Amino acid sequence: MWPNHINKIPKEIFGDPAIFEMELERIFYGPEWHLVGHVSELPNKGDFKTFDLGRRPILIARGEDDRVRIFYNACTHRGTQVETSTCGNRKSFECPYHQWSFNTEGALVGCPGEKEFTPGFDKANYGLRELRMEQFLGLIFVTSSSEAPPLEEWLGEIAAPLTDILGGDGKLRLLGYHKVIYASNWKAYNDNDGYHAPLLHSAFRMLNWQGGKGRQIATQSGHNAIEAELSLPKGNRFLNDPSLIEFKGADPRQGSRVVQLFPLTVATKHLDTINLRFAIPRSVDATEVHYAYFGLESDSEEMLRHRVRQSSNLLGPCGMISMEDASIFQRVHLGTFTPGNVEFQKGVKRTDEFWSDFKQNDEASFLLKWEHYRKVMDFERRPQA
Ligand code: FES
Ligand SMILES: [Fe+2]
C-alpha cells in the first residue's frame, strides 16, 4: 500500500531486491525510452560503444552504411556476449566462442562449419538482434518494448529545455567521461532535487553562482526540467584560478538547465559544461553512472580546452558542485531500511492533487515522477481516511 498523501514515499521500495526485479521488467524493459548515447560518440563508420539496458548488454554501432543501430550484445548462436570493449572501431564483431562474425550492420557473415548445421540453416536469420531506437538531436534512445510511444510524444514539453542543453541543433563533440558506481538504489540517485543544491553543496554557496528565480516543469510521463536563473560567477576568494568557472557561452541570460527523464536519464548545461548522464541500475544498492561531457562542433580549440577544464572540475563524482552527492545517495539508501516514509516538503502546495509548475528550488517537482513510478509498478494508494 502506498501512502495516500502524494508527498510521501514508502521507504521499503528502495532496498527490496524483489521490487528491483519488478522494476527491471516494468520500467527498464518496459515501455519507456532510455538514453544510451549521443551520435557524436560514434562519428565514424565502424565506431561502437557498449552499454547495458538494465542487465541486458547492448551494442551501439555505426554501420558501413553510416546508420547507427542498437543490438543486443549477445551472439545469436549460444548467447555469448560478443563485444567487451567499452568503445572502439571495428570492421566486424567476432564472437570468441565459435568465431561467428557479424558485420557492423549486425548481419551474420561467417560461421565455421556451416555445412554441418541444421538442414535449412540460413545466415540471414541469425543477425544480431536489433532493438527499437529513436534519435532526438543526436541523442540515442533505446527501448526493448514495442509499446513505448514515439520518442517525441514521450518527451513532450521537455523537448524544449533538452534542445537548449544540446546547443539548439545537437551538433556536439565528445570531450570525455567520468564513470562512477554509487552505493545506492537508482531511485535515491535519481531524487537529486532542486532544494538541496545550494544547501548540501558548499561550492554552490561559496561561488554564489546561481540566482533562484528560475522555474521547473514536470510532466505526467515522469520527466522534469529545471530552468535555473544564472548569476554569473564573480571574482571570489575561494578559487586560486577563477577562470575555471568563467562563462564564455553565447547567452548567459539563458541560465542553466537540468533535464531528468523517467526513469534514469539526466542532461544538464551549467555554465559552459554540457553533460549527459547514462545510468545503469546495477543492483538494488548499486547504480552506475557515466557522465559524458560535450562541446559544440563549432567550438574553437580554446573553447574546447575551456570546456574540458570546467567539465572535469564542476560535475561528476569529484566535481566541485556535486561531490557531496555520492555520500548522500549512500546515506539515503542506508536510512531507507528504517520503517516509515520519506517525505517531500519544499514547494508542496497540497497533498491530495498534482500540479505541474514549480519554483527553481522546489523538491515538489519530483512528485509527478513518483506518481508515474507508482502507476507503472501498480502500487495501490491507501484509501483516504
Ligand atoms: S556462442 Fe557465439 S559463436 Fe558460438
Ligand atoms: Fe546534488
From TrEMBL:
Family matches, as SUPFAM superfamilies: Bet v1-like, ISP domain
Domain called Rieske: residue spans: 33-142
Region forming the signal peptide: none
Gene Ontology molecular-function annotations: 2 iron, 2 sulfur cluster binding; dioxygenase activity; iron ion binding
InterPro entries, per the entry: ARHD_Rieske_2Fe_2S, Rieske_2Fe-2S, Rieske_2Fe-2S_sf, Ring_hydroxy_dOase_asu_C_dom, Rng_hydr_dOase-A
Record PROSITE patterns: RIESKE (PS51296), RING_HYDROXYL_ALPHA (PS00570)
Superkingdom assignment: Bacteria
Keywords: 2Fe-2S, Dioxygenase, Iron, Iron-sulfur, Metal-binding, NAD, Oxidoreductase
Similarity annotation: Belongs to the bacterial ring-hydroxylating dioxygenase alpha subunit family.
Name of the molecule in the record: Large subunit aromatic oxygenase
Source organism phylogeny: Bacteria, Pseudomonadati, Pseudomonadota, Gammaproteobacteria, Lysobacterales
